């Protein structure tokens, strides 16, 4: 009984100290930085996706899963996409 | 493109539904208590039933010439209705008088011909009330 | 110490409540970073408190404290100490406590690494992480509290753990399974936090995928361990019975698998966003539903459901999950529009979609089978049920379709492919599969499904090998190494770890499929009675009973039959099998211990059914299960594949996050 009481109090104290410690921590350097507008973040995401699609396309082609014609067609489409997205990003950043 | 996909999805739902429906109709069995079984099957036989009951004395187990376990079950809640069971197979682990069992089989000529016999599965959690468990032990 | 355990549980409940409510509060209005840190610390502290709670309960078991109801019920003095520890999760109350601890532990792991996550996401993440812990600690505290004292008379000894659970698998199977189940709370928390905060970049989907993979690997291991335990211990010669408890673990596995495939489409094409959210939420709901199913007794009877509170609590929580998920999806609907559409039916994304449809069909069929007793009783008043034949009939064709897609998917290009290209890729595997089928029929195996299954497996094997070969060729074009040289294989594997990790998993599935098909289609089952010196012939073996042996152990007495296994070919002795009948006087239980000869070609599985009264004859049952051992090998390969995919993903994500952090800071 008494050992339970002692341990319980000890645990409560430790947890309490750990929690209040939060208010004595210096703020994290990266924490307060808000990463740009939602629109810009969405643009970065779609850029990442398109670049990934190009990578996949090249891999598929190197493993001869697609014909040269399909490869050329898809690659042109995707490159155009990336160009458009990069343009948009530039416009956003100039604003 | 979208239309092709919607029709694909619809196709899957239809095929899935037909499969499930057919399999259900072809394999489902009635779940009955021993008392319900007696009440329903005065004279006629009942194919494909599952009976949940409590094992009562006497248990007879023979291993020659074939494995045959004969016993009777009553409603787990009590009552006088007792149905004899014959099971062609191994006596399952934990099988004993007073234990609840699930029997899958056919009801033929007043006897349940069991195709499958399960005692309460150990990984299912038993009720935590001591009264309920000791009742299971005592009977 | 029991009070300490109880106190720790209460403390964990308070911490989870604080973390959940305060997290939501901070999510709605921007707080200071110390406040967010406070919530994070509450999340970590919850896991510590729950660990202490487990220690308290474990202490009760080790010191035989039979004033505690739960200890009295699941332990006794004769039990070896290892089973006293495993008895902690031997019953419902303790297993819920272990469950809580695992959820909290996962949450603490996420919280630990969450410091670098985007700021708007974090409070909501802590909120949803703690909401899971809060729900399960609430259940434990109010409905299944393991710290209750025995109400009236206290015995000097406990009732003891069910003998079937006194087994080393009890030490590893439930924890592994629970690690799988509880891990699925994390993807759900990420998903909901992303929706609530509106921070729906590619980050959360990567993190979600990583945690799903971790949980999926544990779940796979847990399910297989359960099957292995059933095979060794339950003595019916099989490993899977489509029991509600087994199905409860299988359902979230199916949806998690579906998610792991469809998430790749979202990563590349920005589509299927709502579908993936639905899958994550469904997976989490199914884990909750599974705990509900195995603990409420609803399948046994609808009336059992009505008589306990636990059912309503679970149902309300499931409803809450549904409402929150749908609400958030509607709230963020404009952000969830697909970025692209599927361009061609002949593309990998289309195959992944098909795979999702098949997996969900299986999930639906299993769910239907599980719930059929409930539905039929509710709607027709007459309870009906379905068993193994139902599940096999529905699932075999669906599984074969799934395995077939497993061969098609990885070998087809993203975006689009042409019929000519497909013909080139698949001509050889198809011909190979056809030849295998012909050879099998010629060899005398004529049942439809087994032949189809073997043929499909061969088809998939060929596609995996050709995929590897093409990858190696492309790689050797870069590195100038010869195609099949180890260095070339290693550099290919390093470059595309996830891709080839997935192939390892698929290969494991293939082996398991072959093993399951063989053990279902060609199993031999015989019953016989022998006197010492007599022989029985089964398969390639002759079994000869040599003698009986009686043994007294601490908590049971046993009769053993010594059976000499000889090869039919040259009459050489292969092994002496010792099946055993055990009697536990305390519980008045009789159990059988299976004797097993594992082999590459088949398992010989021997059960001692009984000894006649004169003690002169033994009745036995024998199973010959072909290729059974390959089921476990296949599972090990799958789990290894899971580890290969899950572990490096963790490193890549960290690297990417740093990179993304750099991007966001430069904006």
SSE topology sketch:
The complex is a heterotrimer of chains A (95), B (139) and C (667).
Chain A: H1 2-20, H2 38-62, H3 68-94
Helix pairs in contact in A: 2-3
Chain B: H1 2-27, E1 29-32, H2 34-40, E2 46-62, E3 68-74, E4 82-87, E5 100-108, E6 111-119, H3 130-138
Parallel strand pairs in B: 1-2, 4-6
Antiparallel strand pairs in B: 2-3, 2-5, 3-4, 5-6
Chain C: H1 2-28, H2 33-62, H3 69-74, H4 81-86, H5 92-113, H6 121-142, H7 168-183, H8 185-197, H9 202-234, H10 244-269, H11 273-296, H12 302-307, H13 310-331, H14 348-380, E1 384-385, H15 388-408, H16 419-442, H17 448-479, H18 486-495, H19 497-521, E2 524-530, E3 535-538, E4 541-552, E5 557-567, E6 573-577, E7 580-584, E8 589-593, E9 595-597, E10 602-611, E11 618-626, H20 628-666
Antiparallel strand pairs in C: 2-11, 3-4, 4-5, 5-6, 5-7, 7-8, 9-10, 10-11
CATH homologous superfamily placement of the largest domain in chain B? Nucleic acid-binding proteins
Shape of chain A: elongated
Backbone CA Rg of chain B: 20 Å
Distance between the termini of chain B: 67 Å
Give the total of beta strands of chain B: 6
Number of strands of chain A: 0
Which H/E pattern describes the elements of chain B? HEHEEEEEH
Query: Which CATH class of chain A applies here?
Result: Mainly Alpha
Alpha-carbon Rg of chain A, integer: 27 Å
The percent range for helix content of chain B is: 25-40%
């Amino acid at each position: 009984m008494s050992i339970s009481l002692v341990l319980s109090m000890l645990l409560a104290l430790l947890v309490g100290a750990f929690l209040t410690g939060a208010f004595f921590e210096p703020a994290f350097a990266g924490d307060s930085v808000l990463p740009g507008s939602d629109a810009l973040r969405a643009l970065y995401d779609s850029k990442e996706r398109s670049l990934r699609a190009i990578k996949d396309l090249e891999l598929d082609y190197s493993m001869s899963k697609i014909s040269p014609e399909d490869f050329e067609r898809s690659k042109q489409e995707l490159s155009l996409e990336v160009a458009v997205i990069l343009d948009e990003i530039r416009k956003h950043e100039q604003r | 493109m979208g239309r092709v996909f919607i029709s694909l999805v619809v196709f899957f739902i239809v095929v899935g539904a037909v499969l499930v429906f057919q399999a259900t109709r072809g394999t489902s069995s009635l779940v009955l208590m021993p008392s319900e079984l007696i009440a329903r099957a005065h004279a006629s036989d009942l194919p494909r039933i599952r009976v949940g009951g409590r094992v009562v004395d006497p248990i007879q187990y023979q291993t020659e010439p074939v494995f045959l376990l004969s016993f009777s079950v009553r409603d787990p809640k009590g009552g006088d209705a007792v149905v004899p069971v014959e099971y062609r197979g191994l006596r399952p682990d934990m099988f004993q008088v007073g234990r609840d069992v699930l029997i899958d089989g056919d009801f033929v000529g007043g006897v349940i011909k069991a195709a499958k016999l399960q005692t309460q599965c150990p990984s299912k959690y038993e009720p935590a009330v001591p009264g309920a468990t000791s009742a299971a032990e005592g009977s | 110490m029991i009070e300490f355990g109880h106190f720790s549980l209460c403390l964990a409940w308070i911490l989870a409540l604080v973390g959940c409510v305060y997290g939501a509060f901070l999510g709605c209005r921007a707080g200071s970073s110390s406040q967010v840190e406070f919530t994070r610390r509450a999340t970590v502290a919850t896991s510590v408190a729950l660990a202490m709670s487990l220690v308290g309960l474990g202490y009760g078991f080790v010191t035989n404290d039979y004033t505690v109801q739960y200890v009295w019920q699941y332990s006794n003095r004769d039990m070896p100490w290892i089973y006293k520890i495993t008895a902690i999760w031997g019953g419902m109350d303790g297993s819920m406590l272990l469950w809580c601890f695992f959820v909290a532990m996962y949450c603490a792991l996420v919280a630990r690494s969450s410091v670098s996550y985007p700021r708007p996401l974090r409070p909501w993440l802590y909120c949803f992480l703690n909401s899971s812990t809060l729900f399960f600690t609430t259940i434990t505290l109010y409905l299944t509290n393991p710290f209750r004292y025995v109400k009236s008379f206290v015995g000097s000894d406990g009732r003891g753990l069910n003998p079937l659970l006194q087994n080393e698998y009890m030490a590893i199977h439930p924890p592994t399974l629970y690690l799988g189940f509880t891990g699925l709370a994390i993807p759900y928390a990420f998903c909901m936090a992303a929706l609530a905060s509106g921070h729906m970049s590619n980050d959360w989907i990567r993190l979600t995928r990583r945690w799903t993979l971790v949980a999926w690997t544990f779940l796979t291991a847990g399910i297989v361990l359960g099957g292995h335990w059933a095979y060794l211990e339950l003595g019916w010669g099989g490993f899977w019975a489509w029991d509600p408890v087994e199905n409860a673990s299988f359902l979230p596995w199916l949806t998690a698998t579906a998610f792991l495939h469809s998430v790749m489409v979202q990563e590349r094409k920005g589509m299927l966003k709502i579908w993936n959210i639905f899958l994550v939420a469904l997976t989490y709901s199914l884990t909750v539903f599974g705990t509900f199913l195995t603990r409420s007794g609803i399948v046994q009877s609808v009336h059992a459901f009505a008589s306990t509170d636990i059912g309503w609590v679970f149902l309300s929580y499931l409803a809450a999950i549904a409402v929150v998920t749908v609400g958030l999806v509607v709230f963020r609907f404009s952000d969830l529009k697909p970025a692209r559409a599927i361009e061609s039916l002949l593309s990998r994304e289309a195959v992944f979609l098909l795979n999702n449809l098949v997996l969900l069909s299986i999930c639906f069929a299993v769910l239907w089978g599980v719930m059929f007793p409930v539905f039929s009783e509710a709607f027709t008043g007459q309870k009906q049920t379905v068993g193994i034949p139902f599940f096999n009939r529905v699932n075999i064709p669906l599984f074969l379709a799934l395995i077939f897609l497993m061969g098609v998917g990885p070998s087809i290009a993203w975006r689009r492919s042409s019929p000519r290209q497909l013909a080139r890729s698949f001509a050889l595997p198809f011909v190979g599969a056809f030849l295998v089928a012909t050879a099998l029929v010629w060899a005398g195996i004529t049942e439809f499904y087994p032949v189809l299954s073997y043929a499909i497996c061969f088809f998939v094997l060929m596609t995996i090998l050709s995929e590897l070969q093409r990858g190696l060729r492309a790689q050797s074009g870069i590195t100038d190494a010869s195609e099949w040289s180890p260095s070339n294989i290693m550099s290919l594997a390093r470059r595309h770890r996830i891709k080839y990790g997935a192939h390892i998993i698929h290969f494991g599935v293939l082996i398991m499929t072959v093993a399951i098909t063989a053990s279902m289609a060609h199993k031999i089952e015989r019953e016989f009675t022998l006197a010492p010196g007599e022989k029985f012939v089964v398969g390639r073996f002759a079994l000869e009973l040599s003698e009986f042996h009686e043994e007294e152990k601490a908590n049971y007495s046993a009769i053993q039959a010594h059976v000499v296994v000889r090869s039919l070919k040259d009459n050489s002795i292969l092994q002496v099998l010792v099946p055993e009948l055990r009697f536990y006087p305390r519980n008045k239980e009789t159990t059988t211990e299976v004797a097993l000869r594992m082999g590459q070609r088949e398992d010989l599985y021997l059960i001692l059914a009984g000894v006649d009264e004169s003690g002169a004859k033994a009745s036995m049952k024998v199973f010959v299960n072909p290729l059974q051992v390959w089921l476990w090998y296949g599972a090990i390969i799958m789990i290894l594949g899971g580890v290969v995919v899950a572990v490096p993903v963790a490193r890549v994500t960290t690297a990417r996050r740093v990179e993304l952090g750099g991007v966001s800071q430069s904006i």
